[in-house]
Design the sequence.
């Protein structure tokens, strides 16, 4: 099991200096709008992921008019206590586990798995292809370490290739260089494509199952993987697009253009699904992600649920609460402006909840 027992926040967003003790598997965080409920969830997320869920700009995480923040959390993982400390000062970040500093933060990733579900996640459906790739990349990087390695190299080569395309006139051996870049793009892009494809094929049935449960009815959901690499071999595509790439001065084909098409009853969700249906789908997507991580990490991740009650009808809320209260889930944090609503929802299923009023 994975639990966080307590957390201390110093100069993190609106928290000057606060400590919270968590003594239950289900923790409700309540209080009026703007009091810092989401910020507290984000602080927990930060300790697990070495970054905020919402922004990579540390100035936004640091309390106004201060030059840094500190987060400390005591985790209980399979019977052992682990202390994680994050310190950000004057733009410099240090992270330690049990007083040992990390030289690479990526080593921390996956040790304390967590899944956040927040209202801004709607961007995964409504935003651009970049939002969907970001979600998929973050998930697959946690599952397959080699995925992140390929992706980082691919992006580096892509940048170099695009720079070359912009400076063709100054590069006498541009064609040879492009040949080398293309080989490397294929070498690192193809495995990313293959992992995205095989993962989604096994992931969609899980999402469908969870969607049906939350919605309480069957509506077909699907995730189509849209990639130029499915149409022809990547190296052929790079070859045939080379002239065009030179004209537009960027790489027009490859996994950096991939997208996911979310469908509800075979119609694009972005255009036709209601807000409640979209939200139910996002829950299904994130809870399927939770299940995948749980199997892989051999323990249930922390589940951080922000503003879950908005836009869901009573029936869907009840089913969701019943699901996350089940023993197969680990520690769950839920924010809500209404303490009574939260308490009632868990009382209805005879589940205990710690209510933390901020
Ligand atoms: N860097 C910062 N320094 C100080 N305060 C900040 C900083 N960033 C955000 N805040 C404050 O944090 C508050 C927002 O907190 P948060 O989003 O956690 O609220 P919430 O309780 O989740 O609200 P809601 O119920 O509306 O979702 C705002 O009052 C905002 O002014």
Sequence:
């Amino acid at each position: 099991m994975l639990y966080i027992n307590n957390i201390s926040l110093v100069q993190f967003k609106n928290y000057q200096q606060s400590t919270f003790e968590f003594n239950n598997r289900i923790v409700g965080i309540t209080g009026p709008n703007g009091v810092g409920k989401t910020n507290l969830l984000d602080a927990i997320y930060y300790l697990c992921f070495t970054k905020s869920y919402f922004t990579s700009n540390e100035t936004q995480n640091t309390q106004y008019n201060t030059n840094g923040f500190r987060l400390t959390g005591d985790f209980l993982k399979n019977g052992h206590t682990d202390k994680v400390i994050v310190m950000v000062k004057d733009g410099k970040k240090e992270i330690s586990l049990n007083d040992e500093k990390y030289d690479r933060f990526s080593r921390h990733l996956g040790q304390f798995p967590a899944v956040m579900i927040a209202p801004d996640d709607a961007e995964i459906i409504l935003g651009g292809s970049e939002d969907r790739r970001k979600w998929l990349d973050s998930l697959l990087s946690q599952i397959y370490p080699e995925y992140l390695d390929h992706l980082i190299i691919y992006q580096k080569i892509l940048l170099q290739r695009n720079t070359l395309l912009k400076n063709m006139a100054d590069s006498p051996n541009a064609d040879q260089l492009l040949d080398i870049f293309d080989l490397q793009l294929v070498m690192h892009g193809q495995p990313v494509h293959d992992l995205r494809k095989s993962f989604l094929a096994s992931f969609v049935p899980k999402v469908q199952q969870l969607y049906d449960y939350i919605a309480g009815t069957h509506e077909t959901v699907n995730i189509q993987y849209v990639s130029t690499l499915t149409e022809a071999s990547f190296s052929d595509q790079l070859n045939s697009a080379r002239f065009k790439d030179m004209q537009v001065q960027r790489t027009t084909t490859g996994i950096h253009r991939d997208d996911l098409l979310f469908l509800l009853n075979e119609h694009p969700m972005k255009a036709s699904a209601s807000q409640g249906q979209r939200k139910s789908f996002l829950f299904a997507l994130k809870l399927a992600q939770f299940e995948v991580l749980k199997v892989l990490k051999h323990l249930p991740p922390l589940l951080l649920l922000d503003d879950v009650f908005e836009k869901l009808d009573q029936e869907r809320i009840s089913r969701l609460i019943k699901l996350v209260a089940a023993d197969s889930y680990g520690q769950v944090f839920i924010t809500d402006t209404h303490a009574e609503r939260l308490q009632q929802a868990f009382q209805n299923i005879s589940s205990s909840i710690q209510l933390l009023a901020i």
